[in-house]
Structure formats: C-alpha cells, structure tokens
Design goal:
It contains eight helices and eight strands. A six-stranded parallel sheet has the order 2-1-5-6-7-8, sandwiched between helices. The protein is an alpha/beta fold.
Length: about 280
C-alpha cells in the first residue's frame, strides 16, 4: 500500500511540478517536446546559432538550468527561440544546458529523479527549508561549466548569463550572488524564472557583483508550486542590497509565458551588448 501511495505521489509530482515551457503542466515526453514551435538541440549544446546580423559585445554564453524532474532538452529550444526574438542572441552566443543529477527527493517519498537539490516542503513558500549541501554542490557544478567555457572557448564569466527555471532558477541565483565572493569575476547577468531566493541568512553580495550582475525575475501570479510570494520577497531582499532587478509577473501557474520569454530576450540582449 505504501509503495502504491509513493508511486501516486511521484506521478503527481512529475506530472504537475515543473512543466517548463509548456503552457499546461505535463511531463516532457517526446510527444510533448515535438509539439513545440522550435527545434531542439543536444542536451549539453554549446553551439551558437547564426541568425541575424547584429552581435552582442563579443563572444558570450547563456547557461540555463532546467527544473525538477526535467532534462536539458526541456529548455534547449531557447537556443532557437531567443535568437528568433532578438537576432543578436544568435551570433557568437553559446547556449549550455547542464543536466541535474538524479537524487532522492524527500517530498517525493525519497524516490529518485533529476533534481538540483532536495526538497522538504510543499508547496515551496518563503519559509521553505534549505538543502544547503545540495544547493552548494549544484552551484559548484554550474561554476565548473562556466570555467569550462572560459578554458575551451575563451568566454570569461563577465560574458556569461546564468539562469534557470524553478529549482534551476534557485541555483542560478545562488551561483550568481551568494557564491561570487571577492576575487571571483561577476557574471554578466542572472535570470530566474519561477524560482526562489535560497539560503537568505547567508546572503552576502560583494559590491562588484551588485554593480555588475543585474537580474531578470519572472513568475506566475497563480503559481501554486513555487508560490508567487517568493518573487516579491526575493526581489525586495536583493533590491535592498543594491542589485538591479527587473521583475515581472504573468497570469499563469508554474509554467512559462510567451511575454516572459520576450522579456528575457530583451534582458539578455541588454546585458550581453555591453563591451567585453
């Protein structure tokens, strides 16, 4: 009986938790992915698209993290969608979609699924407990991906935007702000879609990061997974310390909205057009 209940919990979480760019909440099956308007690329793609004549300010990169129960393929259509909205995001912009490890998730009865860190509360409100070890491990994985971009492609961190959806957005915030200590080059920007600010008691942001790493935060007004309260709460904290935050709310649940992707494209074009 317990096994059956756990299976039901797992099914519901996978079906409804983090649906990414689909308007309705579904697991990313091949059928669901194939229905999108933009073709998909390989999961760990770092190839650049070539549409458009404008260029951002030299080589740059977008590192985008998927959400719980998803895979890199769930968001890799951004590599085509963003340049279709802003041609400057095609030429010389590389896209990286790292895969989360497969881990046990406490709210899912301990069942394993792709996730950046463990979750102890459901829904995820501003009092949600932190998996500090898991979150720091996830952030380290992203830092290593950024280091590889510089080593292999000559793209420094100040030409990289880190972003993500839901759990991925939480890790992006952690990577861009908490962990860029003195001596580390700040990122060009950060994108958080339907995510949340974690480890708030440990938030110390250097003056250089505050000046150099603006944030775009989009969230659904009817989000009942990562509650909408997370956005104004996190935005207020970051603004109070001086971070340049562009925030927008959309009439949706835990998903993505076409207007949100348009706003994200505008933000990316702005921060990546800066001279390298």
């Amino acid at each position: 009986m317990r096994r059956r209940q756990d299976n039901i919990i797992q099914h519901k979480l996978i079906q409804f938790v983090l649906s990414g760019m689909l308007v309705r909440p579904l697991l990313f099956t091949s059928t669901a992915i194939a229905s999108r308007s933009f073709p998909l690329t390989a999961a760990m793609s770092t190839s650049s698209t070539t549409s458009g004549n404008q260029q951002c300010g030299g080589k740059s990169a977008v590192v985008f993290l998927h959400g719980l129960g998803d895979s890199p393929a769930g968001w890799s259509s951004l590599e085509h969608q963003l340049p279709s909205l802003k041609p400057s995001l095609g030429q010389d912009v590389h896209y990286v979609f790292p895969p989360a490890p497969t881990i046990g998730i406490t709210i899912n009865g301990g069942f394993e699924m792709p996730g950046w860190f463990d979750l102890f509360d459901w829904p995820i409100g501003i009092s949600a407990k932190d998996d500090t070890t898991g979150k720091n491990k996830a952030a380290q994985q992203i830092e290593e991906a950024v280091e590889k971009l510089e080593k292999d492609m000559g793209i420094p961190p100040n030409r990289v935007v880190v972003g993500g959806f839901s759990q991925g957005g939480a890790v992006a915030l952690l990577t861009a702000y908490h962990r860029r200590k003195e001596g580390k080059v700040p990122f060009a920007g950060c994108v958080c879609l339907s995510g949340w600010l974690t480890m708030k008691d440990d938030l110390e942001i250097t003056d250089e990061v505050i000046k150099s790493t603006p944030l775009f935060w989009g969230h659904g007004q009817f989000d009942d997974k990562v509650l909408y309260e997370q956005q104004p709460h996190g935005v207020q904290i970051l603004r109070e310390v001086g971070v340049d935050v562009s925030d927008a709310a959309y009439p949706m649940g835990h998903s993505s909205h076409p207007k949100e992707i348009e706003a994200m494209a505008e933000f990316l074009e702005r921060v990546l057009k800066k001279e390298s």
